[in-house]
C-alpha cells in the first residue's frame, strides 16, 4: 500500500474507475489515506479517518512516505471550524476554499499550514485546535449548515448527504462516526425517544426496517437533517413530519446517544 494526502478542497471518491461513476463519498482537505493502483488511471483509496474506500483519479493524489503518513497521524490536529473557509495558497498565490472538518497539516498559531512545497495561510478565527474541541453545543454547530443542498456522497456545505452531514458535525465536536447511516446506527447507546435530548442522533428506516436516514435532534421536538437540503422539520414517534410538504417523509427507527 502507498500513502497519500488530499490537498484539494475536496476530492470525490467514486464507486468505479471512471469520472462518470457514482460519487460515494469525499476526501476533505488534509485527510490522509492509503491506496493501491487500480485501472484507467485510478487508485483505490482507504480514508484513514473512517476507513471508507472508493476510487480516485490518480492525478488528484499527492503521495507521501509511510513515515510522513505516521507523522501526520500523530501530530496535533487543527480543523476548519466554519462551513467554508478561505485560505491563501502561498505557492500559487491564489485563494483556496476549504470546508468544515478539513484537517490543516503542520498548522501553527499563526494560521500557516501545508505540506512539502504546498503552503497556505488561513485566518486564525477559522481554526479549531483539537485541544479546544468541546463535546457540548453540537446541535448549534449543526444549524450552521442550514440550507446546504443535498448531494449524494457529499460532506460539505456545498452539498452533503444525511450521514455526511452528521459525520462532519460530530467530527467538529471530537467524535469519530462511520460514514454511512446504517453504520452510525450501531454507535453509542440507544435511548428511548421520550428521553432523547438535543444532539442525539435519530435514525429512520425503510419498509424493510433497514436504516436509510439520519438526523440530529434539536430542542422542542425538532430535527435537523439533509433531505433535499439541510432543513429543520418536526419529529414524533412516527417519524419526520414536513410542514412544507404536509406529510411524513421518514419513518422513525431509533435514537442513539454518542
Mean of residue pLDDT? 96
* Beta strand %: 35-45%
**Structure annotation, total helices:** 4
Span of the ends, CA to CA = 32 Å
Q: C-alpha Rg, in Å?
A: 19 Å
Question: How many individual β-strands?
Answer: 22
Q: What is the string of SSEs from the N terminus onward?
A: EEEEEEEHEEEEEEHEEHHEEEEEEE
Task: Give the helix proportion (percent range).
Answer: 10-25%
Outline the low-pLDDT stretches: none
Strand arrangement within the widest β-sheet reads 17-18-19-20-21-22
Shape assignment: globular
The class by helix and strand makeup works out as: mainly beta
The largest β sheet comes out as: 6 strands, antiparallel, barrel
What this model shows, in words?
By secondary structure, the protein is mainly beta. A 6-stranded antiparallel β-barrel has the order 17-18-19-20-21-22. A hairpin with a 3-residue loop joins strand 20 and strand 21.
